[in-house]
Amino acid sequence: VRDGFGDAALLGMPALALAVASALVGVVAILLDRDLRGLPRGRVYVHMALVIPVFFMLVPGYVYGVTYVPMLLNGHSVGDVKDLNRQAYDFHSNCKPPGCAHSYSSTWLEWPIIKRPIYFYVDAGGSAKIYSMGNPAVWWLGIPALGFVLLQGLRLRLRLDPDTGRTRLTGGLVMANWPLVFVFFSFLALWLPWATQPRTLFLYHYLPALIFVILSLGYCVQRLWDTGEQWGRTSAVAVLVLAAATFVYFYPHWTALDVSRALDESYYWFKSWR
């Protein structure tokens, strides 16, 4: 019998495998080609291939392990450590409605649009709050940005034949676009597994996948700026200004700063945000 984590892992494995495969193919191609190894980008990719396993696998595993050293030095056994991790796993596997329901929970489909943020803190007077939600400008613009990254990564083009009136979808993969493919499938690998997770979920479960949303949006802003056209550069600046202005506007709502009643009420753009 699979639990929720088992179902999530089963769904996430294909996306994770594609993300890892896209990275490995790119690195191997660079290692086998002297010209690619000589390029600045090629050297960066090779360095990252060494850095990621060390600093994102070995070092985190080591740090997590040594946090249990004080516990072991105080008479506990390795078996106790295993029991604690099993209890944590069981909690996250079984924390689901109706016994573990929560009014501020949300589903995986609701996270990209910030449908249901969650309170972390409210002062006695109710005028200062720590409200866990995203920057709407970044989160919402990030959705089409992800789609654009996929189109560019796979070089998907919809072409119209003027003679027959038929449309044709073409595409392909080139070495320069592997990072875009990696970004998109890394997002899926960190987001889709939650689709089958039966436990009570919250907006903050989306944060690991959000990293790749921000990368996608940053890529789009750079592409707009690199057009060299006035409309492109104006659009790039507009996105940055909008993101900064939205951050400043919501900052008191996120950081427990006292604000007026009128400003506090202005933060609830939708009923589900209350």
Task: Kindly describe this structure.
By secondary structure, the protein is mainly alpha-helical. The chain is 61% helix and 6% strand. The chain has 10 helices and 4 strands; from the N terminus they run αααααββαββαααα. The chain has helices spanning 4-32, 34-38, 40-66, 69-73, 78-94, 136-153, 178-191, 207-226, 230-254, 261-266; strands at residues 118-122, 129-132, 157-160, 167-170. The protein has a two-stranded antiparallel sheet. Strands 3-4 form a two-stranded antiparallel ribbon. A hairpin with a 6-residue loop joins strand 1 and strand 2. The longest helix is centred in the N-terminal third of the chain and has 29 residues, at 4-32. The chain is globular and about 65 Å long. The two termini are 38 Å apart. 19% of the residues are buried. The mean pLDDT is 87.
